[in-house]
Specification:
With 233 residues, the chain is mainly α. The protein is built from ten helices and no strands. Helix content is 86%, strand content 0%.
């Protein structure tokens, strides 16, 4: 029992150490969290200008616009998720370590979400204002992005683990991740459409929560396998 407790405490310390180390690195290089946020705001603004005076059409298509731009913003930053650790050899040490690789992967994805997904969620009022979405549904839109960006980070990390050893794996990362994103896109857009239209949210919200839970539990397993393949290649 004592050995098990010590192992659990040690794994927790490794988890928090990796989480705070990655957050420190991200905030040291501000582009890692500013670029995705800047990208989504610029693209959404361009969509708004493109629709011009047709504000009704903009509101109709706003769920799709929000999800597509959020997906692309997350993809922009995924290429570097494991790259630095791979280049300096620390990724191989994590794999060979007796500590839980599952928790290490979980910490890295969580740190990535903090600097990419969370800023997008916090920018929801501005995004809603640009797209003409009513502030009455702001909590629902924020919740949708909170769940959605988490799903995008966890699923996209699978592709990142498979392309980490490639010099320029950005395009391949996108090709690998896109098919996995389809269910999240379908239910995410449906949820925002239901929220804006005032329809019942339980079906689409339940699917989003289920997808996030499945991604949190299962994607680290796939990522672990992908990282081992990349390191051994």
């Amino acid at each position: 029992m004592l050995v098990s407790a010590n192992e659990n405490f040690s794994s927790y310390r490794v988890f928090t150490a990796i989480l705070f180390r990655d957050l420190t690195v991200y905030f040291r290089y501000r582009g890692s969290w500013i670029n995705p946020l800047f990208f989504i705001l610029v693209v959404i603004t361009l969509f708004s200008l493109g629709f011009g005076a047709d504000s009704q059409a903009l509101r109709v298509y706003s769920p799709s616009i929000i999800w597509v731009t959020a997906l692309l913003a997350v993809l922009l930053s995924l290429d570097s998720l494991f790259k630095t650790d791979f280049d300096d050899g620390s990724l191989e040490q994590l794999i060979l370590s007796s500590q839980s690789l599952y928790l290490s992967v979980l910490a890295k994805i969580l740190a990535h979400w903090f600097v990419t997904g969370l800023p997008i969620v916090l920018a929801t009022p501005l995004i809603s204002l640009i797209l003409g979405v009513s502030f009455e549904v702001l909590p629902e839109v924020s919740l949708g992005l909170l769940l959605g960006t988490g799903i995008l980070s966890f699923i996209g990390a699978i592709g990142a683990s498979l392309t980490v050893s490639l010099a320029s794996g950005g395009l391949l990362l996108s090709l690998l991740s896109m098919p996995l994103y389809v269910p999240a896109m379908i239910f995410g857009v449906q949820y925002l459409q239901d929220a804006i239209a005032g329809w019942p949210l339980v079906p689409s919200l339940s699917m989003l929560i289920g997808l996030l839970l499945a991604a949190v539990v299962l994607s680290p397993l796939a990522i672990m396998a992908g990282l081992k393949l990349s390191v051994e290649a």
